[in-house]
């Protein structure tokens, strides 16, 4: 006899864990100085979400200029930061939602809706930054959008995936809560002789 059941209740912490991973990647993106970097030596340009730093080919010290002096810099930082704050709130709500015994599935769907708002804010910030940066900041040599910018996009992709799962989770309410009776498959002895 083989019991076929869906043990989702034990896996309920995967979604909050993924949101925690998105938060970690968001922190790296917010704090990282690798949004834009020189592609090869001499490394003369480095930028974060907050400032742009340049130096001469032989200099050791970076000369930094705040991107908060530009309207687009404030807009990019504000939209990404607002999305990050809502993401932290969604993480706290998800931990609360999955901690209580009686899971409120409409509450879970609301978290999914908020995650789509997070993704929209983060995408706006991630699109404004490279478009306006390359238009308004003079670039020296070959440059590339680098690792911290990539962490920003990775966080956004995880948020979009979690948003779909949070919105679709109520469709499998019985499976998640363990309300489905297990289905048992067995073969009778007379059928087994025909198989051989």
TrEMBL record:
It is found in: Cell junction, Desmosome; Cell membrane; Cytoplasm. The keyword Membrane applies. Pfam families: PMP22_Claudin (PF00822). Its main location: other. It comes from the Eukaryota. The chain crosses the membrane at residues 12-32, 77-98, 110-131, 151-172. GO terms for biological process: apoptotic process; cell-cell adhesion. Gene3D superfamilies: 1.20.140.150. Keywords: Apoptosis, Cell adhesion, Cell junction, Cell membrane, Cytoplasm, Membrane, Transmembrane, Transmembrane helix. Belongs to the TMEM47 family. This is p53 apoptosis effector related to PMP-22. It comes from Alectura lathami. The gene is Perp_0.
């Amino acid at each position: 006899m083989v019991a076929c059941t869906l043990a989702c209740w034990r896996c309920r912490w995967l979604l909050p864990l993924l949101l925690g991973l998105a938060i970690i990647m968001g922190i790296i993106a917010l704090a990282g100085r690798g949004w834009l970097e020189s592609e090869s030596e001499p490394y003369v340009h480095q930028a974060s979400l907050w400032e742009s730093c340049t130096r001469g080919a032989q200099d050791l010290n970076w000369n930094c200029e705040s991107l908060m002096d530009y309207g687009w810099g404030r807009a990019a930082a504000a939209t990404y930061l607002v999305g990050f704050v809502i993401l932290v709130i969604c993480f706290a709500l998800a931990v609360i939602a999955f901690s209580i015994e009686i899971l409120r599935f409409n509450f879970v769907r609301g978290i999914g809706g908020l995650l789509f708002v997070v993704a929209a804010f983060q995408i706006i910030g991630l699109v404004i930054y490279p478009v306006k940066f390359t238009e308004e900041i003079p670039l020296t040599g070959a440059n590339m959008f680098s690792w911290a910018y990539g962490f920003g996009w990775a966080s956004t992709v995880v948020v979009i995936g979690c948003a779909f799962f949070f919105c679709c989770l109520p469709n499998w309410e019985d499976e998640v809560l363990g309300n489905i009776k297990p289905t048992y498959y067995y073969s009778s002895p007379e059928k087994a002789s025909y198989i051989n």
